[in-house]
Predict the structure.
Amino acid sequence: MVANNWNDAEAQKCVADAGNDIADQELALESYASRLIGSDANLVQHGGGNTSCKVMRKDLFGAEHTVLHVKGSGHDLGQIQADGMPAMWLEPLLAYRALDSLSDEDMVNTMRGNMLNSTGPTPSVEGLLHAFLPHKFINHTHATAMLALCDLPDAEAVVREIFGDTIATVPFIMPGFELGKVAAEVFEANPNVEGLMLLNHGHFAFAEDAKEAYDRIIRHTNMVEAWFKKKIGAAPTPSGDPAPEMAAKAAEILPLLRGIIGNHRAEFAGNSDAPMSVMDLRAGPNVQKFFARSDLAALSRRGVATPDHVIRTKNYPLLLTAEILAGGKPAIERAVDAYIAEYTAYFDTYAAISPTPKTMLNPAPDLAWVEGVGVVGMGGDAKAAMIAADLAEQNLTAMTYGEDSGGFYPVDEPRIFEMEYWSLEQAKLGAKKPPLMAGRVVMVTGGAGGIGLATAQAFAALGANIFLVDLHEGALETALKTLGAAHGGVAMDITADGAAADAMNACTARFGGLDILISNAGAAWTGEMATLDDAVLRKSFELNFFAHQTFAKAAAAVFETQGRGGQILFNVSKQAVNPGKGFGAYGLPKAATMFLLRQLALELGPHDVRVNGINADRIRTGLLDDDFIAKRSKARGIDEGTYMAGNLIGREVEARHVGNAFVALALAERTTAHVMTVDGGNIEAALR
């Protein structure tokens, strides 16, 4: 059941923070209710739903008029504040109801033309629906149970059974002017209702009080959930990360699928270097229970619970059955080819009868149901993949509720096409140029340390999806908080047997594959070679050479499976070419790593895998901590600043400079077998 999270004390604090203006106080209450709704994935997901309130405000002449505040397009209800709910003069909007028709473009212009602040966000495409209904506070959600109800073949009868005459139903109409008019007419024929059920779409509830309007959303949703649970019991709900054995199985399939789909995306884009999709795997018990259904294939062809989902997931997933998977790469390729051919035919059919010209979107799948593995969301970055996967999981629950209670029948293909190629929705997705490294998956070992985290931040700033590997769990958690929720990582000893394979499996389960390995982790042991304990030297080789080698091998295997090249970047060291007294245990494995770099470049080049590295010196991280710097400076009779800037340009080299150098190598498209020095100038360590 959905929890009612309204808290009177929190609500009153929002009112107090809004100041003394009554309109601002009422808006604060509705934005508070909106955040409660938006923070519950059972009610709305990823920008879905919208809310509004009507208040009185003065114009420039001091006259009071009714103003509609409605959610701004593209704003997330879970985070929305008052400035995310732009205001429009209501009276001019009501006059437009007399029109017989209004194009989407004219509708948007009409709403923007009546905004109190022209620099605010564009009002929701359902703004006129909120305007045409008379209520002060209105909330619209896409609750999972409501979507299942809306897609039942006898939805109207079930609405009457559950709600009697307190909820009225509205036939499916695309969001916009016509839907607003029809919804208002349905309400006016049933003026005592508490809400509206929009078939194949979602739910509206309204009241003259913000708390009551929110309470009705919760109460209505729980009434529908109770009806379904009485009919069929509990439906599968999202739960848990994939088990380790599932992650290992995903590691066999997802890079292969990622590469196959990547080839199609690159071909469609006309760019052989176009990035592959990022993937998001959901393989919890809820997914496995759903995949055990005997009607799985039939349900894969039913479509999305609400048309809003289609712009994120397309109408159908790519279904990879156990039989297809058993056929290996050729069978998976045939399945992807068939999906693309079907989507292309779908586009050609409906574009031919569309009143306006349409340009086909990339026909490759955005969602896959992989039997025995899980649901896989795909997108241009981790956030897009996560959204696709979240919506897919919601769809599974809605399908289960609906199909087991009379049938799950969402809108048909013609109307789905209308939504998918709706100019107003497409504008939301294509408004921004993707960042330079969007779609790239980057693994950084030693990722929570100074150089590792600085490198991860440099790649993340360009849109890359980061997977950190580090020995220290606490430091890893802190680093991931710094990077943000879209990134991932795993704590492990990278010198342990099987560590590289485990790290690749974890990265694949998180993002679907790998594009760049930054093999950075290392540590320095000191001592004179003539008296150095052999065990110390072996320990140094395990971390400073063999871990680089095993991770490079594991990355190369993923690159081979994907079939679209890749990159390996090593953090070597100036010690590899410029020995320092007492640093032999560190320099020897680093010298071997530099040779490994060049050997791998030679061998992997024909597979479009580039291998490069960085030789850095005197970076405040690891061994070179404040205490060590103080001792070395004192021994040389100089201050710490002079010691750290002891290079040709006389300036300290920082971890961020190393991170930026790794980025530069990653972007150097025709460079391999190269070692870049990042030391401020050290002639003794110069390679050429």
Q: What stands out?
A: The two ends are 68 Å apart (CA to CA). The longest helix spans residues 534-562.
